[in-house]
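Project outcomes to date are best conveyed with an example. Our students and postdoctoral researchers have been running inverse folding experiments weekly, and each run begins with a structure described purely in tokens. The record below, which covers 230 residues, was selected by the lab manager from last quarter's runs and is presented without edits.
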């Protein structure tokens, strides 16, 4: 249909950074996004039907209906990632990761849902390693991540090492705020033993968290990713 054609046209120009700004074909709403007021074209019907936030925004009466809508508080790359998802039901992983900005409402919900369904692919991207501390916390709070906890802990450890190198801080310091989101109770005794050996090298997990390993290893209770945090 027309939307698929628009999506394909956008994908063809994405390498030039034009997607979805090229969607001026039959567009009936224009956004000026960010401080630089980047011009982005879209279609009211699709946005309203796909996103409650856009529905509310576009339903408000305007003195000049054809006037551009100014979104100076939104980063252009974040807005483009949202439109890419709304138009195509998919989004470039690096664009998605950039969009994981806490406090973005519907945007964060859409991004997190995608990450939950494609967790193993997401943790292997460069974008994952560039996540902010707050974005990482938001992801680790999810009960729906489609990944084994051991692999998730490994990915977070890699993220912390990259942050340590970039920020000049210890791995333990970089990971301090996100470690409580790791669910050590999901690990088997042998996995906990391996984790303890890794932790001796970088001290990513504080002693107060590591002490819980002993209690966990002494119980036969099994947990799932949906289990509550300690």
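After processing, the design step wrote out the following sequence:
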């Amino acid at each position: 249909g027309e939307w698929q054609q628009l999506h394909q046209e956008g994908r063809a120009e994405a390498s030039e950074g034009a997607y979805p700004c090229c969607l001026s074909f039959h567009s009936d709403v224009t956004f000026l996004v960010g401080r630089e007021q980047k011009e982005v074209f879209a279609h009211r019907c699709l946005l309203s039907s796909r996103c409650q936030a856009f529905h509310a925004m576009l339903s408000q009466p305007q003195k000049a209906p054809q006037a551009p809508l100014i979104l100076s508080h939104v980063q252009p790359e974040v807005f483009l990632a949202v439109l890419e998802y709304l138009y195509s039901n998919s989004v470039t992983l690096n664009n998605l990761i950039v969009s994981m900005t806490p406090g973005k409402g519907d945007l964060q919900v859409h991004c997190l849902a995608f990450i939950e369904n494609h967790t193993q692919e997401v943790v292997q991207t460069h974008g994952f390693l560039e996540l902010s501390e707050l974005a990482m916390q938001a992801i680790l709070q999810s009960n729906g991540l489609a990944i084994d906890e051991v692999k998730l802990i490994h990915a977070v450890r890699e993220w912390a090492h990259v942050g340590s190198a970039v920020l000049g801080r210890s791995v333990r310091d970089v990971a301090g705020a996100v470690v409580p989101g790791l669910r050590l109770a999901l690990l088997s005794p042998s996995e906990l033993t391996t984790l303890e050996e890794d932790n001796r090298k970088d001290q990513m997990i504080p002693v107060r968290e590591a002490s819980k390993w002993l209690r966990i290893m002494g119980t036969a209770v099994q947990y799932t990713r949906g289990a509550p945090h300690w």
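The first strand starts at residue 29 and ends at 33. Strands lie at 29-33, 38-42, 69-71. The training component of this project remains on track.
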